[in-house]
Amino acid sequence: MSPKLAQQLAERIADEVMAADWPVGSLLGTERELCERYGVSRNVLREAIRILEFQEVVFMREGAGGGLTVTAPTSASVAECAVVYLEGKGLTPGELFEARVIIESLAARLAAENATEATAGRLRTALELEETLEHRREPGVAVPDSLHMTIADLSGNPLIRLLEEVFQHITVHLFPRALFNERRNVIRTSHKKIAGAIQNGDADLAERYMVAHLTAAGAELDDA
């Protein structure tokens, strides 16, 4: 069984689900029907289904009238589908961080403009969580960035929050080794500057710090 073939099939099915406007509850077919439709073995199909079930795109309904069924999307499933799609498209670090700079600089600005008394506490918690995850992580394994996720939340824009989850999934899945390196202390310092500007309500400074931070990170990944 080819893992690459199963991954390609999972991407194809996910693309078809999204192209059909994610029809929750729709039956895609039985195992036998799907093997015939896609011209693959049962083992390849089952591995593709395992990938898609993990991504919360589909589930296999048992019994009479059962089969592969589209499930309700969650932000995590949308993010995972984006990873599958963009990995297949050969997304580069430069392309990823071009988008991140645009969206996350806006998130930082909005978070600063929306800052309340509770903002400082949420940012402090996010920074503390980053420290905890950094100490617990396995060598070479990346973890989602709690500060960036918190800033997206503080922006007050649900689309920015979803896009940030997509960015985090892509960064962690596609570029895990390059994230935690000798510049980790520099990244931590940048995060503290961004958090400080946001809690002080300085939108211009928060945006400027975020742009500088992500531009440097993108350049480092391109050089990795």
How would you describe the overall organization of this protein?
This protein has two domains: 3-74, Arc Repressor Mutant, subunit A, CATH 1.10.10; 91-223, Four Helix Bundle (Hemerythrin (Met), subunit A) (Up-down Bundle), CATH 1.20.120. It contains eleven helices and three strands. It has helices at 3-19, 31-38, 42-54, 75-88, 93-113, 119-136, 146-154, 158-174, 176-179, 184-199, 203-223, and strands spanning 27-29, 58-61, 67-70. β2 and β3 (67-70) form a beta hairpin. α1 packs across α4, α4 (75-88) packs across α8 (158-174) and α5 packs antiparallel against α11 (203-223). The relative contact order is 0.13.
Q: Brief overview, please?
A:
The protein is mostly helical.
How are the elements arranged and paired?
Blueprint lengths: L2 H17 L7 E3 L1 H8 L3 H13 L3 E4 L5 E4 L4 H14 L4 H21 L5 H18 L9 H9 L3 H17 L1 H4 L4 H16 L3 H21 L1
Antiparallel strand pairs: 1-3, 2-3
CA gyration radius, whole angstroms: 20 Å
Which overall shape is indicated by the principal axes computed on the Cα atoms?
A: elongated
Unreliable stretches: 135-142
Q: Give the CATH architecture of the largest domain.
A: Up-down Bundle
Strand order of the largest sheet: 1-3-2
**Topology as a string of helices (H) and strands (E):** HEHHEEHHHHHHHH
The structural class is mainly alpha
CATH topology of the largest domain: Four Helix Bundle (Hemerythrin (Met), subunit A)
Summary keywords:
224 residues; mainly alpha; Arc Repressor Mutant, subunit A; Four Helix Bundle (Hemerythrin (Met), subunit A); 3-stranded antiparallel β-sheet
